[in-house]
Amino acid sequence: MATSAQVTGAWILVILYMLVILFFVVRGALRIKSISDYAVGNIVFSPTAVAFSLAASMTSAATFVINPGFIANFGISGVISYGLILPVASMISLAFLTKSFRKYGQSVKALTLAQWIGDRYKSRNYALFMGFLALLLLTFIVLITVAITQVLSKALNADPIIIMIATVVFIFGYMMFGGANSMVYTNTIQAGIMILVAVIMLTSGYNFLSQGIGEMLRQLAGIDPALAEPVNPKSPLFRDYYEIIFAQIVVGIAIVVQPHIITKSLLLKRESDVNKFLVIAIAVELLFFLVVIAGLYARLTFTDLTANGSPLANDAIIPAYVTHVFSNGIVSVVVGLVVVLGLLSAGISTLEGLIQSVSTTITSDIIKPLTGNKLRSDRAMISLNKTVIALMAVATIVLSWKQIVSPKLSVGIFAQNGVYAYFAAAFVPVIFGIFHQSMKSSLAFMGTLIAFTVHFSVYYFLPYLVTNYDLSFGFFTKYLEGPVRNPAIAASSAVVVSTLVVLLMLLFDRGKDTKVKIV
After folding, report:
1. Residue 484 counted as domain residue
2. Residue 229: is it exposed, middle or buried by C-beta count within 10 angstroms (0-12/13-18/19+)?
3. What pLDDT score was predicted for residue 70?
């Protein structure tokens, strides 16, 4: 439970935060005249501002709140997977893909990833299909909403459901008007706060680190030997190096093709700014990913994962840790409030990017083509986009309520399953669309269908066969067992299988040049 001083301070902080956000929303909204302005902005931003915006939107509440909970549960194996392998793979992928995607994105004036794919392959049906797949990103929106709710409800000693509804109404409400113009401003402020909070979180366990890493590992081993090992056989996520390293490398490479990540470079108006943008974004991102180490501090603080006699759910561990550690003395309380602000920033920054990208996709790539492109005026498109955001808010409230009341281990599993399925399906058309000039639409679409099918088959159908028909798939069988399964296994399988199949199909596609060329 938060103290009265913490609760009062948290309320003051939340109100001030809301006022600052609304100021920048109004400032950005005054510049929006079309759906294009909403999607990619019409202001010339500095590469530092866009880099901070990318870092803030790419690093979500999952990184600052949900994933450290997994580390608290499962130990060093999670740090290796989520704190080292995944970020390094994703940053290399980001640097490698950004310039080529940006070149084609600018030439076709793409506002969304679905539109980019449709224009690249000259297929409206493909764009429509990818638009529908983007609805899977609602699962990520739910994850962030739940994480923000956990942080605020702990800081304010308030009912989580009420906090969740109020959060959705406020954030979705202002995102109806702000768009990319205001989002870069707010993300830049949020990233600055997150940098400070990342440093605070990483140093909050100084008392554990001061005696050396070896001693900290010995303390973890005293709680559970598996916590100090590079693999954790009892974990549903970090059981062996295939799961910890291989699957996360594939996921890290593919994760960049999410629309709120790969399209961020389109906000840059000058090509000369791209290198500076990438250097700053990658440096900040790597710092943010290291925050998962705080999960180890939380486990050493709550050795049996209980607080005040009550068990801590995965998603509530870090909020409880922050409330506990920063509760003694006025200075500690103030620092704790800054940390709360940073955790909120981590969630809200990504949530803004997702609301902006998913709503634009639904408006431009689903509703507009299905209505025969009758919505042509800027006013009609902007009004429709606001309606879409309102409907997304309702869906978010319903899904978030279920994840707060009865999650399966963590809302992170629910979100990963949806998000990973999406970027697995987008991987082939984006990668081959960038690096293979003569890639056929039919082959790219086949890659998307294969990835989508493989992902959900590995996650749902194969486990059904294992459970009900006692089938064995060799070493792969263990990933298909148990009530909680790792979405990274399904997604990495989908990416690898779809890519290999498309490469084989290209070998027999004699009508086209199969040489890999950078666009």
Report:
1. no
2. middle
3. 95
